[in-house]
Structures are given as structure tokens and as C-alpha cells.
Design goal:
The chain is of the alpha+beta class. It has 7 helices and 6 strands.
Length: 160
């Protein structure tokens, strides 16, 4: 089932209407590579329809998160960023405290920890919102260019 089909089905099941604004926000999320701030998403939505305001974008991103179609991360600069999950599948977000890079990392090495938390503490990890702060390879080594070894996606520089 495609992302759109899943969204439309979930809307119907929960008694929501499919509005043009919801379609626009989801469409824009498909166009964005990597993470984007609400303002960046809003700018793209605004090119489709000037009648959509930023609060509508916020509400629809929240709804998409509730439906597990969008993940969000706060890299520590006060600007939450959003990404369509369907593009890369579920993954962890490694957030550099120094430069703000957000790097997608495969979940497989973390599955034992996730299982342990569930078995020992009855704790269900919310993978769509899981972020691990630290230092990226570039910042920890002091070099400008670094490659992502084994990550799901390349890093997105968000702040300096």
C-alpha cells in the first residue's frame, strides 16, 4: 500500500475528511529529500495554494506523525525537522550537537536494546521519534568532509 493510500485509509477509519490542505502537505513531504523545517515545508505548500497558513501545516504534520507517516527530530537548535518515513523506512536519528547534522542509522544493531527495554521494563520504544544526540564524524574528527559509513541516508547539515 502506498503512503497516500495508507493515509487516506487511516483518515477514513478515524472519521477525518481528506482535505486539499492534507493532500498538499503530504505531496510536499514526498518532494522533500531529508529533513525540513515547518517553514521550509510551508514555503513549498504556499506555492501550491496561498490560502494555506503555517498553522495548517503544523496541524497536518502532527496528524501525519500520529499516523506514523512522518518522523520528526529536534537537532537542538529549536527548529523541529520533519521527514516522510516511507522514503527511508523506520530508522534512528543521530543528531550532531555541534553542527546539527541529522544522520539516519539502521535499526538492526539497536534491536537487542529495543527488545531488552520491552522485556525488562515493558517500555515500547517510539522508533519514529527516536534520536540519539552526539557528535558526527566530521565534528569529532575536526574535518570538513566525512562520509557516512553504514548509515541509511547521508547527513543533512542543519545549523553551524
Amino acid at each position: 500500500m502506498s503512503c497516500e493510500e495508507s493515509f487516506f485509509k487511516e483518515l477514513r477509519e478515524r472519521g477525518f475528511r481528506l482535505t486539499p490542505q492534507r493532500e498538499m502537505v503530504l505531496s510536499v513531504m514526498h518532494q522533500i529529500e531529508g529533513f525540513a523545517t515547518v517553514e521550509e515545508i510551508y514555503e513549498k505548500v504556499e506555492t501550491l495554494s496561498a490560502s494555506v497558513d503555517v498553522s495548517t501545516v503544523y496541524r497536518n504534520l502532527e496528524l501525519l506523525q500520529d499516523f506514523h507517516l512522518v518522523a520528526s527530530v529536534d537537532p537542538g537548535d529549536g527548529q523541529r525537522r520533519y521527514q516522510l518515513i516511507g522514503v527511508h523506512g523506520a530508522h534512528l536519528h543521530l543528531v550532531c550537537r555541534s553542527c546539527g547534522a541529522v544522520i539516519g542509522a539502521d535499526l538492526e544493531p539497536f534491536r537487542p536494546l529495543i527488545s531488552y527495554l520491552k522485556e525488562q521494563h515493558g517500555f515500547e520504544v517510539d522508533l519514529e521519534h527516536m534520536s540519539i544526540p552526539g557528535m558526527c564524524r566530521t565534528c569529532s574528527s575536526g574535518h570538513e568532509d566525512a562520509t557516512d559509513a553504514g548509515g541509511v541516508q547521508t547527513s543533512t547539515r542543519t545549523a553551524n
